[in-house]
């Protein structure tokens, strides 16, 4: 149970004509992970002499092309989706829509291609013209907005810009100039020519200038302007006077908006009619794409294909039967035991499964080491409750977890697992809150002069922090010992006696020795004390023998890891202190007026809510850290690769039986 699922490696050879049925059957069952043989063939000369690397089927590129077209239409439909507000988003989290699965026939690749082309041709005949028209309107709208922006800047100039192109002997330059350079321009332009007329509008920062100059002096004037950080406007697109242009453009923009609204309404109708069909079609094409591209992982000869795959030992017989049935027994199957390169499938009891993602975030275990998920499932919520102890914090986390579990958890397994984790953690935080008397800080004794009937006075954070510290260090030491024992057993089982002795058993002896010395001193039992000292010297000698004098420093490192568990107490006290601080602020806001009561309510609600959310998050991070940094350091190697089954992911479809 503590080890990952035992794996078996399959070696399958079958005739090419049976390869597709075999792949379809395995894909639907989703119990094997197919390995890439082609890479080994490319590297190994011996392999290349007997076979070549496989290739995706001829239909693969066609399927990919059709999939892109379907995805493109579904993306196009998104412009017709109404804008969702905060309430809509919240509703989707609390009660997300569950897709209805449509029964579909088990069509061949060619059958699905034919069906896809038929549907796409029909849908695209309705959407292409609309899409083209929308693109045209978008382009026109962008151009008009540029014209509008330019016209507004030039609105003070009563000039018909359509006449400018007819000027033969003069050149017109229009643009923007920093205000501090305008006076310099007026002065230096006279040094170039007197045959110039200009006008300017603007503000203290910049000036919009309109310059008319003899064409012979155009380049000289423009060179001067560029030197003065001039930004030229493109006035060729302007037709008419700026005021008239602004009016006409605004009217056209309104028309475009109306036209786009009508087109989007048509898209919405098409979406309503075809979206479900396209979602089904996309899923079918995605499945076919995987099936047709997986052949590039195989080795092949002129008549046969070679496939290698991993399967959990429990499902070995089932996988072999599927292959034999799909190939009419025209196959050769061999299997071997899992080795260190086997993919990792975590195999935990149902209560621990939701905690598997927390382990995967760090790293899956390797094939030959213990999976610590069960330990995390038991210890992590306890640590979290210790850190986040509080009735309100616990209830908030519990409610959040329940909403995730009953909401997004219905359509997303990760959210379901995380919801369960939060529910369990919330319950522990609530229980710890009841035991420590943490109910909105010191709300009950401060305002109601009472306390929770469940409170254990020896565990009150602000009155007896030393007891909580002793408890935190006690459970911390217990977890470190658990890690050392787990590592020792695992190494002994794998025949690594030396590693077990020097990396784990020596530290266990050191802890036992320290415990004996402490008891000997406490009970004034000198024999026990000297026995403990002797054992301590032996344990320390083992450590120094293995790593040298640096082993003496390692004892301080281990001590530091142990003291890290004091953060459990620190966070527990911090939660109570923050709650008390909010209550003090509430008390300071007391007064005879309704305004005082409003302020008190605002401080109470916002303060406790903010601190509870922050406390909940920080407690999660630090509880996780104690596992990743302190606990795993004692025994866990990780670096396993996750088992990823070759599986048809069906959300919108199910095969007809």
Automatic annotation (TrEMBL):
GO terms for cellular component: proton-transporting V-type ATPase, V0 domain; vacuolar proton-transporting V-type ATPase complex. It holds the Pfam family V_ATPase_I. Its main location: membrane. GO terms for biological process: vacuolar acidification. It is found in: Membrane. Residues 113-150, 246-291 form a coiled coil. The keyword Transferase does not apply. The chain crosses the membrane at residues 374-405, 417-435, 468-489, 501-521, 527-547, 568-588, 594-618. InterPro entries: V-ATPase_116kDa_su. It is a multi-pass membrane protein. Keywords: Coiled coil, Ion transport, Membrane, Transmembrane, Transmembrane helix, Transport. One of its GO terms (molecular function) is ATPase binding. Gene3D superfamilies: 1.20.1460.20, 3.30.70.2170, 3.30.70.2750. Component of the A-type ATP synthase that produces ATP from ADP in the presence of a proton gradient across the membrane. PANTHER family: V-TYPE PROTON ATPASE SUBUNIT A, VACUOLAR PROTON ATPASES. Belongs to the V-ATPase 116 kDa subunit family. This is A-type ATP synthase subunit I. It comes from Methanothermus fervidus (strain ATCC 43054 / DSM 2088 / JCM 10308 / V24 S).
């Amino acid at each position: 149970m503590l080890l990952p699922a035992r794996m078996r490696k399959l070696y399958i050879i079958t005739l090419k004509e049976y390869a597709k049925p075999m792949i379809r059957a395995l894909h639907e069952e989703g119990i094997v992970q197919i390995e890439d043989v082609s890479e080994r063939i490319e590297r190994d000369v011996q392999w290349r002499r007997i076979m070549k690397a496989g290739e995706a089927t001829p239909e693969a590129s066609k399927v990919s092309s059709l999939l892109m077209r379907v995805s493109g239409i579904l993306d196009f439909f998104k412009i017709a989706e109404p804008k969702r507000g905060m309430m809509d988003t919240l509703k989707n989290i609390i009660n997300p829509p569950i897709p209805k699965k449509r029964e579909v026939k088990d069509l061949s690749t060619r059958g699905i291609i034919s069906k896809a082309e038929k549907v796409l041709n029909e849908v695209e005949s309705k959407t292409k013209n609309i899409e083209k028209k929308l693109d045209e309107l978008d382009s026109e709208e962008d151009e008009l907005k540029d014209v509008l922006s330019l016209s507004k800047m030039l609105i003070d100039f009563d000039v018909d810009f359509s006449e400018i192109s007819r000027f033969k002997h003069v050149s017109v330059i229009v643009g923007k100039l920093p205000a501090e350079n305008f006076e310099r321009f007026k002065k230096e332009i006279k040094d170039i020519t007197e045959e110039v007329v200009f006008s300017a509008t603007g503000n203290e920062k910049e000036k919009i200038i309109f310059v008319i100059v003899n064409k012979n002096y155009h380049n000289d004037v423009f060179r001067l302007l560029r030197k003065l950080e001039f930004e030229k406007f493109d006035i060729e697109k302007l037709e008419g006077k700026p005021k008239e242009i602004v009016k006409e453009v605004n009217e056209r923009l309104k028309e475009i908006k109306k036209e786009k609204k009508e087109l989007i309404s048509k898209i919405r109708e098409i979406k309503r009619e075809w979206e479900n069909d396209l979602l089904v079609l996309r899923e079918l094409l995605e499945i076919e794409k995987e099936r047709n591209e997986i052949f590039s992982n195989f080795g092949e000869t002129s008549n046969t294909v070679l496939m290698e795959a991993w399967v959990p030992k429990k499902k070995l017989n089932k996988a072999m039967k599927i292959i034999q049935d799909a190939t009419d027994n025209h196959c050769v199957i061999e299997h071997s035991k899992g080795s260190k390169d086997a993919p990792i499938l975590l195999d935990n009891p149902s209560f621990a499964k939701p905690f598997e993602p927390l382990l995967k975030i760090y790293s899956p275990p390797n094939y030959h080491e213990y999976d610590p998920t069960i330990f995390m499932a038991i210890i992590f919520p306890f640590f979290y409750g210790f850190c986040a102890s509080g009735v309100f914090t616990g209830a908030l986390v519990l409610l959040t977890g329940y909403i995730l579990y009953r909401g997004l958890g219905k359509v997303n397994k990760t959210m379901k697992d995380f919801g369960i984790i939060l529910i369990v953690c919330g319950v522990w935080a609530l229980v710890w809150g009841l035991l420590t008397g943490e109910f909105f800080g010191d709300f009950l004794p401060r305002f109601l002069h009472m306390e929770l009937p469940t409170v254990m006075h020896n565990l009150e954070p602000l009155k007896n922090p030393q007891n909580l510290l002793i408890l935190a260090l006690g459970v911390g030491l217990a977890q470190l010992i658990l890690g050392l024992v787990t590592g020792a057993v695992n190494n002994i089982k794998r025949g690594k006696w030396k590693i077990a002795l020097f990396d784990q058993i020596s530290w266990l002896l050191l802890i036992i020795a320290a415990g004996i010395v402490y008891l000997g001193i406490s009970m004034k039992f000198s024999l026990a004390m000297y026995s403990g000292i002797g054992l301590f010297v032996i344990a320390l000698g083992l450590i120094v023998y293995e790593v040298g004098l640096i082993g003496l420093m390692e004892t301080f490192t281990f001590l530091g890891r142990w003291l890290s568990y004091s953060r459990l107490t620190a966070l527990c006290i911090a939660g109570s202190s923050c709650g008390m601080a909010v209550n003090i602020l509430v008390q300071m806001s007391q007064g005879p007026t309704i305004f005082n009561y409003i302020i008190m309510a605002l401080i109470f609600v916002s303060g406790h809510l903010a601190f509870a959310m922050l406390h909940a998050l920080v407690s999660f991070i630090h509880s996780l850290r104690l596992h990743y940094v302190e606990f795993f350091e004692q025994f866990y190697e990780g670096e396993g690769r996750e088992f990823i089954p070759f599986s048809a992911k069906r959300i919108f479809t199910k095969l007809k039986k």
